[in-house]
From TrEMBL:
Gene3D superfamilies: Aldolase class I. Belongs to the FMN-dependent alpha-hydroxy acid dehydrogenase family. Residues 1-370 form the FMN hydroxy acid dehydrogenase domain. This is Alpha-hydroxy acid oxidase. The keyword Flavoprotein applies. It comes from Aliiroseovarius salicola. Keywords: Flavoprotein, FMN, Oxidoreductase. CDD domains: alpha_hydroxyacid_oxid_FMN. Its cofactor is FMN. Pfam families: FMN_dh.
Amino acid sequence: MGAGAIHCAEDARRLAKRRLPWMVFDYIDGSAGRETGAARNRAALDAVTLKPRILKDVSQRSLATEVFGAPMDRPFGIAPMGMCNLSGPGADLMLARLAARHHVPHGVSTVASTPMEKIIETAQGHAWFQLYFSGDGVGTFKLVERAKAAGYKTLVLTVDVPEVGRRPRELRHGFKMPFRIGPRQFIDFALHPRWSLTSLFSGKPQMANFEMDGFEFDRTETRANVTWDTLARLRDAWPGKLVVKGVLDVEDAQKLANSGVDAIQVSSHGARQLESAPAPIEMLAKIRAELGPDFPLFYDSGIRSGEDVLKALTLGADFTFVGRVLQFAIAAAGERGLERMWDILSDELSSAMAQTGASSITAIHEPNHT
């Protein structure tokens, strides 16, 4: 079965679960603790309803929008995800090519398995660099300077990982970054020969952005010493747009808006960090109400369909980001699977817009639409 077997996000996930080693699938799919946070977010998204509107001419619909004054073909981009090449050889560059074709941002993770320079080149400039602050910050600011030199114009500081969340599915499989293969992993890979023959023979995924002199990545290194002073230092050091990702508190959002950041991204890290975190989709509307209509507000976490995108836009997001489902599509059917999943999300969004009487992304934000 190839890309034609994908008709929705769940199809891609089901095929990915069949084809990926258990360790890799659970790394991509897993959430914190007993995963009640992921279930809470899904239930909250499912509980959001959209208002059907009738007898409106929606025969011509546009999914185009703008972010920071730049035109985007879609109101959703690619969320930063670590070690994407585990889902399939060359996955990072598949995502970069997708971003270039559709003029949307490709979030390039600090822990990407392809160098940031290669990704932004392949994405034809449509890439934002996601930053984790860790340790004493010396290496972090080296990455900032490297991103600046590579041509990145937008930096996304992720603030919801003071310590790496405990994800039991990962722990049971002994998942490590940098990637290590022991007896347990060898057996897992042997039972999934299709993935092993294509992925491991392409070279073991590396933490590509850390291949710098005097800099060694430690996933367990604390990130807990980041403060508002750290943010101020980063604001001074970064001349481009600065987005803060991982915000779920109204007071924090207001303080960020007053601190000189250019946008806030409401996110629970896909429920991978704090199991008891509130559903981001519920906090989105509260943060929008606090910040007013004009401050740039983005959203990620749990998006599985075009209708989910529309829900987030309706509740106040200016732009959204999609993550796991794109990796599942790559695992299911490579680059054709990725394109198929992108088209499905686009078609689902367009159809939902027609059902709710919106012919443009701007119309979604009009007061009478909701």
